[in-house]
Amino acid sequence: MARRLYLAGGFVSLGLGAIGAFLPLLPTVPFVILAAWCFARSSPALERRLLEDPRFGAHIRRWRAHGAISRRGKLAASVAFAMSVIAALAFAAFPWSLVTVAAAAIGGTWIWTRPED
Predict the structure, then answer these.
(1) Whole-prediction pTM value?
(2) Which of 48, 52, 101, 103 is surrounded by the fewest CB atoms within 10 Å?
(3) Number of domains, the chain
(4) By three-state DSSP, how is residue 34 classified?
């Protein structure tokens, strides 16, 4: 039963990561890392495919080894956060737009405190 839940979680995470490739508010790499974690517990073959993927494999290995995020990844996340804040300030009512600002500040601070490899 647990294997099936991890497998489903891996596919859902991978799907959200694919959607995130087109939506600036949804991150791609963290969902792919989560998918690899789920697949490690349910399907070693699918985990191996993610680890060998030319686009995402290095990110997964870097995260697993050192909890590291590349400088390029940090910059991309910062740009996505900035776009989210601008959209929230432009389209959301005043007190609610501050939720996005706070989330971007907290998330951005955490990302920039991660090591680079």
Answers:
(1) 0.79
(2) 52
(3) 2
(4) helix
